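hi support,

uploading two proteins for the ticket. first:
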Amino acid sequence: MIKLFKRIIAGLRGDKAIWALVTLLGLFSFMPVFSASSNLSLVVKNGTVYSHFFKHFMHISIGIGIVYIVSKIKYERLKYIIYLLVPAVIGLLVFALLNETVIAGANASRWVRLPFVNLTFQPSALAIVVLNMYIAHYMSKNISSNIPFNFKKSLLWLWGPIGVCTILILPANLSTAALLLFTNVLLIYLGGYPFRYLLRIGLMGFSALALLYVLGQVYPNKYTSRMATWESRIDRFLADEDDKDVDNYQTDNAKIAIATGGVTGLGPGKSVQRNFLPQSSSDFIFAIIVEEFGMLGALGLIFTYLSLFVRFFINATKITEPFGKLLIYGLGFPIVFQAFVNMGVAVQLFPTTGQSLPLISSGGTSIWITCAAIGVILSVTAEVKKSKVSNPNSNEKDKKTKISDQQFEPTDAQVTEAIKVVQQN
């Protein structure tokens, strides 16, 4: 059994610490998802607790398989498919927007149903991964060529795809559009894009958003109806707790769950608020985790995500190739940012967003997309490790050189005798 375990570990490609942290999050997710899914089975009358647990088990298992398979692919090969993935994602976003899914009178066209397999997924989640890969490649080409950025060209080839995807995501999902823009701009800044150009883009984006808001107020339609949801969430976030006109049902139950948890929690599977808190197995699963595992469990989860962030940063600093470095930044940082946004919503640091907790919340395709991004990161880290292994004796050679220099260091008598020989000649 131990030999088999060692073989499995040896066959993993990439940073073993990242592998351990991802596996730890996946294994831990079974407990809160199993507990919180009782809300779906008993309250919503959707399946059973065991069916939801088995579904989540399959999602995590397939996700780990995706990490393994993608990590075996050399990340340089992604350069050849990036330009095919961008138009494909844009096409999926257009299809989702035209799908005309309406919830409570508002546009909620986030989902695309895959034919034959009866699975749904959000193209916006895929857009974050694909766009950051595209930006990493675009920026790395400019870095390698040592050619200064041309603002007019970057408007078309860099900001064009970002603007199109943001516009297509924004009507149905403001939080994902904001996360997309934030990670895109951060990656572009880390890639060396001039700050003065970023200021221009920021001014243009703010003007476009203001114009969209005015048009939505003057000419309301199904594509701008989601603005009412944005406004209500912001109003609930800014309103006083004693304001009876504001519906804070979700956040109130989340705060009750967190307060009930205390330091050590009620224990696994003993949550009470899971029966009252909507989306307790996805958007608000952090509140259930705190209720059952307490402040200690919450700090442990936060530490795990921070450790993942640190491993991403350390590996990015080790690699010298621009494309690999920017891939780690662009695919790793959004995972950690999304985790802290989800936790911030549960403790009411942010308005309700609908962002899931990566590798913890239930949901198949979101887990798989996150796992694919981690697989790419592991592929990059494997190249860093390979470069070290390819020259393992470099430090030994340096040591031998220093020792040899010390062994052949001449004495004062030898120097004096050498000077006499030179003078005689």
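and the second one:
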Amino acid sequence: MSSLITKTLSGIGCAVLALPLLAALIIATLIGSILPGSSVSATPSKHALTDIPPHMLALYQRAAPECPSLSWTILAAIGKIETDHGRHPTMLSSAGAVGPMQFLPSTFKAYAHPVPPGGKNPPTPWDPVDAVHAAARLLCANGAKNGRNLRRAIWHYNHSDAYVDEVLKIASAYAASSPAPNSAAARAAAFARTQLGTPYVWGGDGPSEGGFDCSGLTQAAYRAAGITIPRVAQDQYHHGPRLPKHAQLMPGDLLFFGTGPGSITHVSLYTGNGQAIDAPYTGAVVREGPARTRTPSFQGATRPAMRGDAR
């Protein structure tokens, strides 16, 4: 126990990463936020807020999680092209497609279940809730899941390369632009991404010790970027620099959770587009998922790369 406490306080030890792989991941981190369709939890742009009816915007955002890594902006772009978000006077095409997302009834039937919360029972392509959720499922089944082949997924919605290009163009306009991380933050985020799948180990500082705990991972990530931060989550929170409430997050920011500012129990590393990497708990592995910044336990964020305490 005493050696574990010593390591916890000093933060020694971290994984060594092959430099070519790390360099590639840094580049991916720097450019990922500008790729069309990459903004899973993208903030709506001013254009989106003025162009999309509020109830439809909320629906696109609610339906997108039907498909892992699918951005609501893709659903919104399809809704825009098909019926101007349900504003078309008839929502009936000459080919027999109907409703706000323009489904052929036979195609809709394949993706109509389970009935989403608030949808009609039996489901109908005329109902916006049913139609948008079915669109998310169609895209997911044809390549959108985990971003595997988004272009192919959109092409399956309408067999036209020009249609795919237009959807991606509109989706990009609907997402508020995110600032690119600086190089140190990009290195920290890239390091964290290479640790995905590493086991959680309480007090762990890296694979050489069997895995990471939450603050061991974030400290190692910033060590890889040449920046020294404290070992435990509470101290990392105090170390700062703290971001103002509701500040726009950037890849590399640290997100803190607990019952209050003086009782921080968990930290994760923001990777962009509403996602974060963390080492969650015993029995789990390092993972990437929703940043959870709207949960009651979220206490705030810091930006260690802004301090730049190089070793």
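thanks. also noticed: The chain is about 40% helix and 10% strand.
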